[in-house]
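Regression check, nicotinamide-adenine-dinucleotide case 486:
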Amino acid sequence: MSAISKADIEKIVREVVGSLGSSSATATTTATYTSTHYEGRKLLGIYSDMNEAIDAATEGYKAVRAMSVEKREKIITAIRELTRAEAPIMAKMGVEETGMGRVDHKTAKHILVADKTPGTEDIVSEAKTGDNGLTLTEMAPFGVVGAITPSTNPSETVICNSIGMIAAGNGVVFNPHPGAICVSNYAVDLVNRASRMSGGPDVLVASMDKPTMDSAKIMQTHPAIRLLVCTGGPGVVRSVLSSGKKAIGAGAGNPPVIVDDTADIVKAGKDIIDGCTFDNNLPCIAEKEVFVFNNVKDRLISEMQKNGAYLISSAQADALSEIVLVDVTDKKTGKTKKSVNRKCVGRDAKVLLNMIGVSVGDEIRCIICETGFDHLFVQEELMMPILPIVGVSNIDDAIELAVKAEHGNRHTAHMHSKNIDHLSRFAAAVETTIFVKNAPSFAGIGFGGEGHTTFTIAGPTGEGITSARSFTRKRRCVLADNFRII
Ligand code: NAD
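Current build output:
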């Protein structure tokens, strides 16, 4: 393996972080790739049949079980190094394949995963001693994990899940999003290359060349799969939670932001635009709608405009809404409802503005508009750099509306304020897994905030900011009447 030095890594991080806020780099790669090959090289661990992929992941699990923790950690270190070195490749490929997001930000997301996803140190044992001797509780692997991954953070999720699941001693089989299968499988291959380079098996984790709902169903019912981990929208989370197996569900969010009149408005304007536009609003934690006190609303809008926001009129917002949201008929109920137009998800602000005949330069990274609470921009999880702003007269109204807009997902919420009563009241009322105070949303996943990172935030099933220990089961060993040293 070509080792990458600490200085090189620091240089990459400096360059990536320094480029945040600049326009998207080109997403065109000169590489040729499919879901099974990259530049003519066959990717490791990719199968055409889910049963075969599960068999391969089972062999991977046996290999991990036979390894020392030190060896597992060696593989994880290699995954981190390859991820840092190949982050720009996956970032470009991800944007090119999905048409979503920004190369510079996707590069930063991969480096974040490499640096801040916990490894084997996250697995800790507990000992209890007393009159009756010693009881030991250890965090054991589940076995083979079946993981479903999204199109929005595809390779980031594959690598983050792999590090945590391997650290916990599991095998993994992925059923990635079909729309991001090439970059997801590139990440699966990266994990396997790291294993091979560190003396582990060639196939530690497995995936499908053409994942489908049917292959997901096989995964959900196969007896070798002991744990399902699903990162995606409401449909797929519902599906794994009704599978009858132990499941971790990381589902949709619609994070509101409250700005009150004690906030540092200059900082709030910048932070909100930085967070909302990170990877063109693809992260499920990104700011999706703002509730701001009326007496500071104009100042906040002005600060946002200084940071690359373009203010559109309500007529323009309605015209944009007709494009970015489309009618979808529910097959079961026959009812029609609005749903996001996948062609608009994760697109640059200037591309979206062009759709309503507005031409702007690369300096515009977000579209803002004043709307009422009922506007679809407030109610729907758009995952695009469009930010509706609703004026409110006091903290009671702000909290009531923000909690409603979050739709009970209990995922993520943000607030800019210096009033600790307001901050505490909103945090308690909204009950989200992540609550970020006075910072951009990405501080909540360890980017400029304390704490480890994850791209699987399990609100519905309660694991929260998942890490290796989330993928373990507790086992107890009791040694009665002995083995105390006092
Ligand atoms: P998606 O729900 O369209 O797809 C996720 C995965 O599920 C894909 O692999 C897809 O093929 C599969 N899938 C969809 N329906 C399925 C079903 N019924 N049975 C089996 N598999 C099924 O998600 P997406 O568009 O790629 O990602 C965006 C959504 O995911 C957003 O709602 C976002 O908030 C959420 N998300 C949540 C987290 C989190 O950590 N909580 C992280 C990323 C994305």
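Comparison notes: Residues 148-153, 176-178, 213, 216, 231-233, 235-236, 239, 250-253, 284, 381, 455-457 surround nicotinamide-adenine-dinucleotide (CB under 6 Å). The two ends are 49 Å apart (CA to CA). No diff flagged against the previous build.
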